Amino acid sequence: MSADTLEMMFREFCLPTMAARFAEMMQSAEAQNWGYRKLLLQLCEAEAADRRSAAGAAVAGVGPALG
């Protein structure tokens, strides 16, 4: 499975931050010898942080809520 395939799947599963940050984080993972668990954790944490940020902005009336 190629990196492009994974990025497309992230988008299909409505994981835009994971899709956007995958290539960058994959380079870090390879350079720093991360295991797959650390890479996945970093991607999930980035996605969660963006969703929390978007939800907080929506509550404050700044932007649309993600659903």
Structure description:
The chain starts with a helix and ends in an 8-residue tail after the last helix. The chain has three helices and no strands. Helix content is 75%, strand content 0%. The protein is mainly alpha-helical and 67 residues long. It has one domain.
- Low-confidence runs of at least 5 consecutive residues: none
Shape: elongated
Largest sheet: none
- Average of per-residue pLDDT values: 90
Fraction in beta strands:
under 5%
Quick gist of this model?
With 67 residues, the protein is mainly α. Helix content is 75%, strand content 0%. It has one domain.
Task: List the SSEs and their pairings.
Elements: H1 3-12, H2 16-31, H3 36-59
Helix pairs in contact: 1-2, 2-3
Annotation keywords:
0% strand; mainly alpha; 67 residues; single chain; 3 helices
